[in-house]
Specification:
Order of helices and strands of chain A: HEEEEE
Largest interface: A-B, 38 and 39 residues
Largest sheet of chain B: 8 strands, mixed
Shape of chain A: globular
Structural class of chain A: alpha+beta
Number of strands of chain A: 5
Strand content of chain B: 35-45%
Shape of chain B: globular
Strand order of the largest sheet of chain A: 1-2-3-5-4
Number of helices of chain A: 1
Number of strands of chain B: 36
Structural class of chain B: mainly beta
Radius of gyration of chain A: 13 Å
Distance between the termini of chain B: 46 Å
Helix content of chain A: 10-25%
Oligomer: heterodimer
Radius of gyration of chain B: 22 Å
Distance between the termini of chain A: 34 Å
Largest sheet of chain A: 5 strands, mixed, barrel
Number of helices of chain B: 9
Strand content of chain A: 35-45%
Chain lengths: 109, 537
């Protein structure tokens, strides 16, 4: 029970920045360069692919470089063409970049 | 924390989370509904073959089943720890083999326990004495063996086998231990000839199980206290251990032997092409063929139950795929309801929300289970026979029914008549040869319970106070559902519902025999919603 609560609280806390991502980035994952960009390498299991929106939902492990725990999240992919060869329930490695306002996958395979 | 308080907390939390998360965290229900299914069902359905998973083999040819911890790619190219019944035959290694038998066959096999915990195999649905039934009163410790020797006394049906060690069953079944035990007889052969059916090709077992995986694709089972109260709900529904499966099919009749092998989840099964539901035919239940096929468009299946169905794909139009779905339904998590009125108590949260928050597929959500691609095929002109088999009539019980009430104590413990499982006790005793009616009464403050009786198949005589979604499917007098026309070993009892069943305690075994009666929501079973009962010689 405690674990469920912690996951929910953590996700709620982390969500603000990522939700802003969807507002500011539209479908193309284009953002203005920002100082202090951080990138984390992650491993995860694809849950869903939305090729129209260039987005992917990943159940991933902890991303300590971004101070994120394990969770299931939807992220925009900077180069949507990288989604072409991916399948649901495929294990992937990805780079997730946070620019102070938004999160975007800058590489995935 | 009491159940009510915990639920209030969960409800408040879920509401707060939803507000601030606002669409960032993936909502599986909405995402599945919105996604293009054609891009999601990319794995060919696993079928019983000559070796490997579910390979079919005569049960009398199996001399040993090794209960083993192995590695298996449930998800493509992602090895996962997996527990399996492993048989060796003809130089081949079989995992969870599909065991085949005929009435009268003598089965002799040794179970070798390679786990680090006790186990025992229960031959679910078969008539056995208590030494061979696998009730859990006899166990094999780690590294030890257990020898089975029994005769097949039962009619043709899709039975199955799975672990039954009290306190360990849910985990062991979840991690992979389950297989089909198919008994065939003359009626079966006649049907197979009439429709040109071949096991594994056009006569297809569908074992439905919901599971969760970690971020590296490994099977994951970490039940919280809430999950133990509600029953485990997974994040993916697998069929034959295939995630998001498809089947290429011809335009002809298929037989699907559906086993709900999930720990806890129920399904409302329908076949859909686009928004159109196709008719299909229920031809059998836990205990084998019905007398006549029953045309249906949907049927509920609770954990451990089997439905044997025919689908005529000549009724599918064009090339649009047909989906086996679980249609949306009310999962009736009414655990916090007022027992007198059946209505929700003020401030009580819906447990459904708790499950959704934990990432599982919501209970009762519409789910696509299997994509069936209908391919061009040779002409097929067979028709479903109007008569399938002959069933013995229900036993005529004498005396008042034995009442068994399903409920919980408000502290997170399910029970039967207030009893919780104690291996040393058998609070119910029946006389060998007696014919009894049992009245299974589910409380209003409850959830659906799939109730399983070891040792004997039974018939449903009557359903009372069924919820609207069940009443709407009742096709006969006494509120009976189409599947109530068959022999059952497990019956799903909904909150507030009473199901009267007929049992004939005649069997060929000398001496007193002890069996189990329990909820087959495996987390409920493991936490005490089970009683022993004795059949006195």
């Amino acid at each position: 029970m405690k674990r469920v609560f912690l996951v929910i609280f953590f996700a709620a806390g982390a969500a603000g920045g990522a939700f802003a991502q969807q507002d500011s980035m539209g479908q193309h994952g284009m953002t203005a360069p920002a100082a202090g960009e951080k990138t984390a390498k992650g491993t995860g299991l694809i849950q869903q692919i939305d090729r129209d929106k260039g987005a992917v939902t990943i159940k991933h492990g902890p991303l300590p470089a971004l101070n994120m725990g394990a969770m299931t999240m939807t992220y925009t992919v900077k180069d949507g063409r990288q989604l072409a060869k991916l399948q649901p329930l495929q294990k992937v490695e990805f780079d997730l970049t946070y620019n102070g306002r938004s999160y975007v996958i800058t590489g995935i395979k | 924390m009491s159940i009510t308080t915990r639920r209030k907390f969960l409800a408040a939390l879920a509401g707060a989370g939803a507000a601030s998360i606002g669409g960032f965290l993936w909502r599986r229900e909405a995402a599945l509904a919105a996604s293009d299914p054609a891009t999601q069902f990319t794995n060919r359905l696993r079928l019983p073959g000559v070796d490997g998973l579910y390979a079919a083999i005569p049960a009398k040819d199996v001399k040993q089943l090794a209960v083993s911890e192995v590695t298996f790619d449930i998800l493509p190219k992602l090895p996962s720890p997996f527990w399996a019944y492993v048989a060796e035959a003809g130089g081949k290694r079989l995992l969870n083999p599909t065991l085949l038998a005929q009435p009268g066959d003598q089965i002799r096999l040794r179970m070798l326990n390679g786990l680090k915990q006790p186990t025992i195999i229960h031959w679910h649905g078969l008539t056995n004495d208590d030494r061979n039934d696998g009730t859990g009163t006899y166990l094999a410790a780690p590294g030890k063996v257990y020898d089975y020797a029994f005769r097949i006394h039962d009619r043709a049906a899709s039975y199955w086998y799975h672990p039954h060690p009290y306190g360990f069953t849910a985990e062991q079944a979840y991690k992979g231990l389950a297989g089909l035990f198919i008994v065939k007889d003359d009626d079966e052969e006649k049907l197979a000839r009439a429709l040109d059916l071949t096991l594994g090709v056009t006569d297809i077992p569908l074992v439905i199980q919901d599971r969760s995986f970690d971020f590296e694709g490994r099977l994951q089972y970490q039940p919280s206290r809430d999950y133990k109260f509600m029953g485990f709900l997974g994040e993916e529904v697998l069929i034959n251990l295939t995630a998001r499966p498809y089947l290429d099919a011809a335009r002809r009749i298929y037989r699907f032997r559906v086993l709900n092998g999930s720990n806890a989840r129920s399904y409302r099964l329908g076949f859909a092409q686009g928004s159109r539901l196709l008719d299909y035919y229920l031809i059998g239940t836990d205990g084998g063929l019905l007398e006549q096929p029953q045309k249906v468009r949907e049927a509920f299946i609770g954990a451990a139950q089997r439905l044997d169905v025919l689908l005529d794909l000549r009724a599918a139009s064009g090339n649009e795929p047909v989906f086996l779905k679980s249609l949306a339904f009310d999962p009736m998590h009414n655990e916090s309801a007022d027992e007198k009125t059946g209505k929700p108590r003020a401030g009580a949260a819906d447990d459904h929300a708790a499950h959704a928050a934990a990432g599982a597929l919501p209970d009762g959500a519409e789910l696509r289970l299997l994509q069936i691609n209908v391919k061009a095929s040779p002409k097929y002109a067979r028709q479903i026979p109007s008569q399938l088999s002959r069933l013995p009539g229900p036993a005529s019980p004498t005396g008042e029914p034995r009442r068994l009430t399903l409920g919980h104590d408000g502290k997170g413990n399910w029970n039967i008549n207030g009893w919780r499982f104690d291996m040393r006790e058998t609070p119910v005793t029946a006389q060998r040869g007696a014919r009894e009616a049992w009245l299974l009464q589910n409380s209003r403050a409850s959830m659906p319970h799939p109730m399983h009786i070891h040792g004997f198949q039974f018939r449903v005589l009557e359903r009372r106070d069924s919820p609207a979604q069940i009443k709407g499917l009742a096709s006969r007098q006494n509120g009976l559902l189409p599947q109530d026309l068959g022999l059952l070993d497990t019956v799903l009892v909904w909150p507030g519902e009473s199901v009267r069943i007929a049992l004939d305690f005649g069997h060929p075994f000398p001496g007193d025999q002890t069996y189990m009666f329990h909820c087959h929501n495996l987390e409920h079973e493991d936490t005490g919603m089970m009683i022993g009962y004795k059949v006195k010689a």
